[in-house]
Amino acid sequence: MILINSRVKFRHLHTFVEVARQKSVVKAAEILNVSQPAVTKTIRELEEALGVAVFEREGRGIRITRYGEVFLRHAGASLTALRQGIDSVSQELFDSAPPVRVGALPTVSTRIMPRAMTLFLAEKAGGRVKIVTGDNAVLMEQLRVGDLDLVVGRLASPEKMTGLSFEHLYSEQVVFAVRAGHPLLEAGRSIFDGFPDYPVLMPTRGSIIRPSVEQFLIANGVAGLPTQVETVSDAFGRAFVRSSDAIWIISAGVVAADIEDGILATLPIDTSETRGPVGLTIGADATPSTPLSILMQTIRQAATEIMPAR
């Protein structure tokens, strides 16, 4: 076993994690700035050292094996520990604290994080904070491989929560947002019957809320949407809906301020069944740094202030 472990190098871990994250040797090679054969050779060396296959072919692509899933948790944790060690040395040399890397859904970035950061900065805890926004599935994958320290978003499916820990903050539902004065806001109109007449902005297929949205539409007799645009960009969604008759299916928090300002409105549809938990997700075995612990506290406080109905 000692001999096997001694054959696994940093480049093996780094390459393996990137291929797992991209689900593609070609994409991983581009990001790592090496040739595709070099990536393939590195993965083969890793598999020889481990004695098991970590990837297998699936159609024209690849997918991670069960052994690969197990190894990914440890590989990601190892890379995270190494980065933290390098950051700690850098802190001693340059008096610069390691960054706290947070992934947040667009709704969280819009409503919760501004208040949380204000509270965090007031604590003068030091440390740099890096906030990235994106699709819940993408953020969770980045957390699993060690590229993020914390994700503030929806609770992922059980199979995606292996090795992770979730703390519930509040629940949020999906709304159907339109511009003020939209034809479907007129009294007496059948809202769902009118859906095919307008462009509909849908959450992407990889998003956490997509299945509940599809189930909701089917349950209400909407079997298909002729003009459908998939997006996770709140900037695009907001601009497009304000300048057209499009219907935007989005988490309530993303458009809350626009609705309060009267710029957008929600169609009178009961979407309570789409409610889902939003909270903090970290590695189950992670030990948060002091800045991360304080930031988590301020996120909890901001969620309590802004979303009191938990």
Folded structure, characterized:
- By secondary structure, the chain is of the alpha/beta class.
- It folds into three domains: 2-73, Winged helix-like DNA-binding domain superfamily/Winged helix DNA-binding domain (Arc Repressor Mutant, subunit A, Orthogonal Bundle), CATH 1.10.10.10; 97-171 and 277-306, Periplasmic binding protein-like II (D-Maltodextrin-Binding Protein, domain 2); 174-274, D-Maltodextrin-Binding Protein, domain 2, CATH 3.40.190.
- The chain is 47% helix and 19% strand.
- The chain has helices spanning 2-7, 10-22, 25-32, 36-50, 66-94, 106-111, 113-122, 136-144, 191-194, 210-219, 234-242, 252-260, 290-306, and strands spanning 55-58, 61-64, 100-104, 129-133, 150-154, 164-172, 174-179, 200-202, 228-230, 247-251, 264-266, 276-283.
- The protein has a five-stranded mixed sheet with strand order 4-3-5-12-6, with helices on both faces.
- The mean pLDDT is 84.
Topology:
Layout: H1 2-7, H2 10-22, H3 25-32, H4 36-50, E1 55-58, E2 61-64, H5 66-94, E3 100-104, H6 106-111, H7 113-122, E4 129-133, H8 136-144, E5 150-154, E6 164-172, E7 174-179, H9 191-194, E8 200-202, H10 210-219, E9 228-230, H11 234-242, E10 247-251, H12 252-260, E11 264-266, E12 276-283, H13 290-306
Helix pairs in contact: 2-3, 2-4, 2-5, 3-4, 7-13
